[in-house]
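subagent[fold] <- orchestrator: predict structure for attached chain, return tokens only, no commentary.
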Amino acid sequence: MIARLVLALLAFATLTGAAGPKLVPDVSSRAIEIRYSFTGAELLLFGAVVYPGGRVPETPADVLVVLKGPTEPILMREKQKIAGIWMNADSHRFRSVPGFYALASAKPVGELVDERTAAIYELGLANLSLSPGAGSEPEKQQRFEAGLIDLKTRLGLYSEQPGGVEVTDGVLYRATIAIPSRVPVGTYTAETFLVADGRVLAAATRDIEIGKSGFERFVTLAAERQPLLYGLAAVLISLTLGWIAAAFFKKRV
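subagent[fold] -> orchestrator:
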């Protein structure tokens, strides 16, 4: 079904006489729901590269895909061991940090585009624009950026997959990106880039919604819309569970 759709789009673009190569992208799901049993998911990004006249060049262009979002401000704290105790010694604020970032490509980014192009399009973890707070020293900024990227990577929220894009006959492409269980909710952007000779020839985007459903959605909405009642309910539930636990252990003793 997917192959037929892509071939039909290819034929249409060929008949219209496209001036340059174009991308016809899509994703396996436009919405991902997070329930209490959510353990992660896999998102398939696929599509076709449409060349002028339908003729694939001897050296086809390469494809990179990026999934990222949503952005949020973050305050990073650095701990140091002082007098035998781990304490917050320094901090750094970032105004806008992607909660999730994953890149897949046929080859390492450095082999596909030059440094300037990678920086403009934020291709690769080393080229993420993290919007640091004003007045930061460059050395401190770099240290905290490296720490933030390392932390997000260990949590499975940041990743790069060289060799993660499969291209068939220089036309059809596909890439699978893993969505971890602790992924933040919000609007994500799936970006596809067509690159050749170190530059971007074409780009296309698709939006994806990742949100909570069921009881998780009810709890989230209650916390956002009725924070006072939500807080009182949380305290009441904690006291009730504590009383039940105390009564249970008292009986066993």
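orchestrator: received. Logging for downstream: The mean pLDDT is 79. Residues 2-211 form a domain with the Immunoglobulin-like fold (CATH 2.60.40.1930).
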